[in-house]
Amino acid sequence: MNDLSLIEKFRADVPPPAPESLARARAAMFTVGAEPTRRSRWIWRLAPAAALAAAVAVAAGVVTQPESRPAAPAPRAEGPAGSSAPVLPSNASDAAGLLRLAAAEVRAEPVLRVGPGQVLFFESIEAQDNIENLETKPTWVPPQEINRKIWLPVDGSTAGLLIQTVTRTGEKFHVPLDADGTTPYLTGLPTESKAMRDWLYTVDAGTAAEDGPDAAAWDKLGETLREKYLTPDSRAALYEAAATIPGTILVKRADLAGRRGMAVSRLSGPVRFDYIFDARTYEFLGERVVVVGHLKPYPKGVVSRYTAQLRTAVVDKVGQLP
Amino acid sequence: MRAELTDGDLIQLSATQPEAFGSVFDRHATTIHRYLSRRVGGTLADDLTAETFLTAFKSRTAYDGSRPDALPWLYGIAANLLRGHRRAETRMYRALARTGVDPALAGHDDEVASQVTASEHVRVLATALARLNAGERDVLTLISQAQLSYPEVAEALGIPLGTVRSRLHSARKRLRAALPHLAFENGTDDE
């Protein structure tokens, strides 16, 4: 018997934790913990879709490669090159160049007008992969597409609605959204790139920036583009500000939802975060997460998840299609 | 069962698949709870276990994925959180020393404490533990109760290996001084 073994025996008979206490702690991790970290807001928003997709994949027992699937409906048909396509400066040679071209294009767009009591409608495709059998035989399951239609009242004081449709099976899921006082129609944002850069680098309350301020700003860019409306001036300023974020690269071929795209990207460890723009019109098409490095159990080079923005419109009522 | 993914793999994976962190929780939550429970009792341990894993989850992108075992990291977070509950911890040691009834073993609030009176040397031990400083208590309990190695303790607490040795040395010296009537077989603090 020595002093260390006395300490070893001291309170050795503490009762084990109650299962419900552990279950609460586990759940709190994903609910409370999901908000403030980088990327996780997106992940969290996607989580129900991911669970849905996983459930569907398991039930069907079949998965298909998203890349080999027929293209998702594009917001408008691609006309023959040179006919209706605007005349654009020569091709971007780096990420900053592409962002500046996109800014120049968007600045020329008309402002989307909304009246009191109106509702913003966004339609997108979201796809999230899954890892099955984590503890036994971890297996990567490619992303499953979900069509996402969301209605968000402009004044934020009444309830919204989200309808998710599993692309492959046609199953629909209605999710009522409580009024949270926030508007998807952002009017107060800077319209000039320098001020917008400051805004982009301002860390929101409760947001941790573990990967550094540049990664946080890169993340905030995506947050700002997702299911929100910015005036053309602000959106242009946002692209111009993003062009000044260090560490970005240009990916010349990054197709999304059947449209030919180019991506501005930033690496975070083995994972690359792409914002994709139409290669001809420089319109923002969506986002993609690609596993480019070694990350078990991912096959190298696969797309982990993506979103494709299909349309944004103003409607009079929640549930009404444009 | 031999899992194919290490804790490090799971934590790296959780950057894109947050649910993967659930497996880290499932592997280690009971162990962390037990450690916390032995220092501050079950009720507070419930809260601190939740807080430990919440903190870990939020800082998961900072974890070095080449470290296969996440336990030292989790113990480090738990020990850090215990710093905020030093008074509660020492109050319980003193209560045990005074009354012979250990509030830490009382279980949950709605349960009646088991009225087992501790033996004399446990009460003396509690007095000694109350007198250690927090750094000494961390090292002592991580070595003897959590069974971490010296390098693991250094990693968990973010202190040099030499500090681990010196803290353990002084903690044991104080324990032995408090328990002079116990004949120690092994009075050294070699590894």
TrEMBL record, chain A:
Residues 68-89 are annotated as: Disordered. This is CU044_5270 family protein. Residues 68-86 have a biased composition (Low complexity). It comes from Paractinoplanes ovalisporus. InterPro entries: CU044_5270-like. NCBIfam families: CU044_5270_fam.
From TrEMBL, chain B:
InterPro entries: RNA_pol_sigma-70-like (IPR039425), RNA_pol_sigma-70_dom (IPR014284), RNA_pol_sigma70_r2 (IPR007627), RNA_pol_sigma70_r4_t2 (IPR013249), RNA_pol_sigma_r2 (IPR013325), RNA_pol_sigma_r3/r4-like (IPR013324), WH-like_DNA-bd_sf (IPR036388). Gene3D superfamilies: 1.10.1740.10, Winged helix-like DNA-binding domain superfamily/Winged helix DNA-binding domain. Residues 125-175 form the RNA polymerase sigma factor 70 region 4 type domain. Keywords: Sigma factor, Transcription, Transcription regulation. Residues 25-91 form the RNA polymerase sigma-70 region domain. Coiled coil: none annotated. Belongs to the sigma-70 factor family. ECF subfamily. This is RNA polymerase sigma factor. It comes from Paractinoplanes ovalisporus.
